[in-house]
Amino acid sequence: MDMNTVVGSHDLLFITLDTLRHDVATRLATEGRIPHLAALMPGGQWEERHSPASFTYAAHHAFFAGFLPTPARPGRHSRLFSMRFEGSETTGQGTCVLDAPDLVTGLSARGYHTVCIGGVGFFNKLNPLGNVLPGLFAESHWGPELGVREPRSTEHQVSLAVERLEALPRQQRVFLFLNVSALHQPNRHYLAGASEDSVASHAAALEYVDSQLPPLFAALRRRGPAFCIVCSDHGTAYGEDGYNGHRVGHPVVWTVPYAEFTLS
Length: 264
Fold this sequence. Notes:
Radius of gyration: 17 Å
Number of helices: 10
Helix content: 25-40%
Structural class: alpha/beta
Number of strands: 12
Oligomer: single chain
């Protein structure tokens, strides 16, 4: 994909499925349990990649600097976006190089209206730390109904995203970022009868998220072509080798699912 032909001609959608594990995502795609995402992903399956960080705040700083999850195979892999700096070894002919400190600012300079719909606490705008990442965008949104404790969070996030897309002129290119919170603990409410979070409730959360995404994809199609990136920022552990949670260097944390595709 030559991003130099995409930027300026397409809307851009970037979804981070916060905390989603690669093994769970891959299994659900194979079992036909996430039909809406699988229908859009190349080959109906996720690409295995490595996250640049083990928790949300650090991973998103890297993402917004152009360092998306790296393909989980040896070699130098050209990036979709790069902030201009000397010595970059992963800037290729198809890389969109931006003269900016971050992706959001760079796309804004290229004429994009930038929108953030937050999810987990690092996007909640309730304190200085929670304003850092949303503060990059021209407009940003967060409320408890979008956060980790709301069982219908993805429904609310998608509804807001569709509302904002439909409020903007079609000729106005948009960079829309969603941090989907449903996968993050607590996710037990997605599995009937569960009293604690588990790999099973994590999987049930992904099924819920998949069921809520079609209106967003439909809204983007109505506006014209859109290039989409959907990935996890990191995984999370549920007792593997004694680990629980994330911000640790375990394979279930560093290994993430990734997909990119075009809507038209």
